[in-house]
Amino acid sequence: MAIDLIIRNARILDGLGNPAFEGDVEVDEGRIRTVGAASSEARTEVDAGGLHLSPGFIDVHSHDDGAFIRYPDMGFKLAQGVTTCVCGNCGFSAIPATPGEDPGPASGGIITGAQGAFADLEGYFNAVYAKRPAINAIMLVGHNTVRAQVMGMENRAPTKDERAAMRGKVAKAMEQGACGFSTGLIYRPGRWSETEEVIELAQEAKAFDALYTTHMRNEGDRLLEAVEETLTIARNAGVRAHISHHKAAGKANWGKVRQSLDLVDAAKAAGQTVTLDIYPYTAGSGRMIEYFRLDAIDRSFAETIRIANCPAFREFEGRMLSDIAVERAEDIADTVRLILTAPKGDRTICIHFIIDEADIETNLRYPGMMVGSDGIPTLNGKPHPRLFGTFPRVLGEYVRKRGVLSLEEAVARMTSVSADTFGLKERGRIAEGYHADLVLFDPGVIIDAATYDNPKQTPPGVSLVVVNGQIALRDGVATNAGSGQMLRYRRHAYAASA
Ligand code: ZN
Ligand code: CU
């Protein structure tokens, strides 16, 4: 009996940080059958030609909730060798939702255009399965979404009943397999919540030993206070803390990541479990409206902005706000106002250059630092290149060119460390019995090709991607196998009920 697939002559990186070794990998019925010398016959054989085979990369920080429905081929992630995305970050998740209602505001716009009939995580999973996604997803349940569902966009504390309703929604998502509770305390409506509210909701993750992940209340002047708040929330709720896209934003704060990591180390020494991720770029990106108060526009922040996607002014896309202001002979604050108050101005996505390159290296040197793209899957205009290049950039730029970390270490942080932290059962390593999510790449070639001017570029150096035992990408061409699965925290994948 022939098995499904054999990949021969690979240099195998097991995902645990061990040096690569030569061997074959046998795959059958979605799982890795043997690692070493293949002895079976297979329906499909691939000669790896000495390229490196590692577990598929795990994007621990994605906003692909809506993308799984709009772009089920997930080409921008698959081409990087990503086989699983953690969705629902920064407090915004596709669920809970009210069927028939525009989920845009409650989900921070991430699910706009993907209005489904789903209300909860199982409904979302079924909706995604119906699209036959190319890769896997696991979901966090977002605070902003839950709060907006229960309270609308109200700037006040929740009542007792509202607190109970929010807890119920978080609990239901956890029961259905969410890997944790996420916040985006810089965004509306999360920024209107007190620490106590977050602690109470994070407690719902405790019974599952799941995560509290956070886009912290402040990543600049008050970074250290925000780290303290994160540690307090996780400690009081009894959950594991995960700091998303760790950074020190704004020139005045550059270098502060060292102090921030010291706080994390102290918490760990005191027994807390704390993990982090970063994206390997000096610019952030998000919905522009979230960063400004129209009555008090921050000009120095405006100077750092480049427009990524702007439905109201397509001609601004790809340009620095400061250049647009000069061209229009106006105060940059007026340019900000012009954009944000135009029809659909609130949908404008900006890119802001706020991070120091040296801080990225400091972060990547930190033991266990994971990688998340934070890519915003709005494909119009000129999106932040991180959507297309994050994982190849770490391996090409920071491993090969700069030697900031070793290849095996980088791969471990993108695979087993992430799988263990986010509860992806039997994934993230090349080991017998594990799910066959694999990527074959050339460490001497892999690099990000996506730039700010030309972001939608396929990274070179990735030759094969296998998702749940099926070839999803070969020689740069997607096969449309549609073998992605919807994963549940520390449990087996959700089985489609359709
Ligand atoms: Zn964020
Ligand atoms: Cu994010």
Helical stretch count? 15
Distance, first to last CA? 30 Å
CATH homologous superfamily classification = Metal-dependent hydrolases
Largest sheet: 9 strands, mixed
Unreliable stretches (pLDDT < 50, length at least 5) are: none
Overall number of domains: 1
CATH architecture classification name: Alpha-Beta Barrel
CATH fold label: TIM Barrel
CATH class: Alpha Beta
Principal-axes shape call: globular
Total strands: 20
Listed once per kind, the bound small molecules are: zinc ion, copper (II) ion
- Alpha-carbon Rg, integer: 22 Å
Helical content stands at 25-40%
Share in β-strands: 15-25%
Calculate the mean pLDDT score and round it: 96
Query: What is the structural class?
Result: alpha/beta
Show the helix and strand layout.
Blueprint: E1 3-12, E2 21-28, E3 31-36, E4 42-47, E5 52-55, E6 57-59, H1 67-70, H2 75-78, E7 82-87, H3 121-129, E8 136-142, H4 143-151, H5 160-175, E9 180-184, H6 195-202, E10 211-215, H7 223-237, E11 240-243, H8 257-269, E12 274-278, E13 283-287, H9 299-302, E14 305-309, H10 321-327, H11 332-341, E15 349-353, H12 357-365, E16 370-371, H13 386-401, H14 407-414, H15 416-421, E17 438-441, E18 462-467, E19 470-474, E20 477-478
Parallel strand pairs: 1-4, 1-5, 6-7, 7-8, 8-9, 9-10, 10-11, 11-12, 12-16
Antiparallel strand pairs: 1-2, 2-3, 5-17, 13-15, 14-15, 17-18, 18-19, 19-20
Helix pairs in contact: 4-5, 5-6, 6-7, 7-8, 10-11, 13-14
Bound molecules: zinc ion (ZN) and copper (II) ion.
Copper (II) ion binds at residues 61, 63, 89-90, 215, 244, 374.
